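Notes for week 9. Today we move from apo structures to complexes. The key idea is that a small molecule is not decoration. When we ask for a structure prediction with zinc ion present, the ligand SMILES becomes part of the input, just like the chain. The input block below holds both the sequence and the ligand string. Read it once before you look at the output, and try to guess where the molecule might sit.
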Amino acid sequence: MKNIILTIGAIVIGLTCIAQEYDENAEKYSKTITAGELKEHLYIIASDKFEGRETGKKGQKMAMDYLIQNFKSFGINPPENQEFTQTFNLVEQTTKNVNLTIGDKEYAVLKDFSISPSIIVKQNLENEIVLVGYGIEEDDYNNYAELDVKGKAVFIMDGMPKKSKISGEWSMKKRIELAKKKGASLVMYHSSKLKDNLIKYEHYYSKPKLVLKEDVDENETIALATTTAVAEEITTQAGMKWKKLVKKGMKEENGQTLKFTLNIDKPTEYLTSENVLAFIPGTEKPEECIILTAHYDHIGKEGDVVFNGADDDGTGTVTMLEIAQAFQQAVVDSTGPKRSILIMPVSGEEKGLLGSRYYSNHPIFPLENTVANLNVDMIGRYDESHSEEDNYIYLIGSDKLSSELHDVSEKVNELYTKIDLDYTFNDENDSNRFYYRSDHYNFAKNNVPVIFYFSGVHEDYHKETDTVEKIDYDKTARVARLVFLTAWELANREDRIKLDEN
Ligand SMILES: [Zn+2]
């Protein structure tokens, strides 16, 4: 049975390959994408005036205005009944004003403990701490399941005592989940790696956190990870001996009653940000849509130092402008694409793919009618495994959901652009995990086939030195043409590309 399906599949793919022929128009419009125009746009949006285009801040709004003004000047409109922007709400919190006292000791956030979720509404908690489930017998944990922890804090030890005969089934995760389910107001857990992590990732931990407002769950149980030193103090204050505890586990659930207070009043800011929507309606199958994305936000500025983000992702952003103009020229010539094209520069990427996440939660075109997403993020430089002579681009994701998409992409490149397509980072086991690290992922997780175009990380990545004079504009133009030509083929071919069965 399987073999027959495979054979039929092969014939179908074979036929579509034959159908994919050289298209004079495609080539003609792709040539309207020029290095000179890309450069002109990039020198504007990646200038100091745009203040590093930080999500929700002045520079991002300036870049948004610039994009809209250009789309308008090309004669492009937003999708029907839509504005040029899709606006979303954000909440930002710093890490300040978190005060914890346990017994008679005060502890400092990001030194003694870390706290989650990243956004917490004002809270004043005060109750006792119950030390739970850290034993050598299964029963020690079963007793924990019987304990009344409602409204209290539970304290959970990392891992198992040395002498424990139990493995796996009473994992820390399970103990944390149980505490939450039983209505604990706070979960404290000992993390032996925390101290090192707080030092190593200090920059990340201390930064304000920004999330979509719709993702804030006010009822989420607060969890607090403590360092080993703090865990030792807590257990000692509760009348237990640390060394004995680590070795032999805990027989009684609590030595002495231990009280805690936790006051949280973190400075909170409410912001809005925008995805930009430029729309080319399809002439024959307007309900089917190909979405092109690039994030136009970057990481802002620190004091007077502007992070220009020329490559990240200025190159992708200006590529969106040039591709839009190429498609619009076809529309003017009455040879517009058969399927619709949504060109969507998104924001919030640097804060955690927020703009594309919002779009995938609130799609303007149903995701099941979205044929593919082509995402462009950093295409103007070379990484350390390539030189300036190398005519290459990394492609990620092209074969993950639709092998037909992969074939289309390969064929387009063979017919027109002849770039060395490098699939190094497409490997499932690649430790960089780039497949999960840019906006296409929010489409892929919803079963929309994607291709991510990327020229790799360089020494100026996320530094103030990612500037316009270091960009190779000819290379950027070549990749932009490949993206345009792939979108053109996806929009104009007879049958919509299919998802693979598995
Ligand atoms: Zn980026």
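The pocket of zinc ion is lined by residues 295, 312-313, 349, 377-378 (CB under 6 Å).
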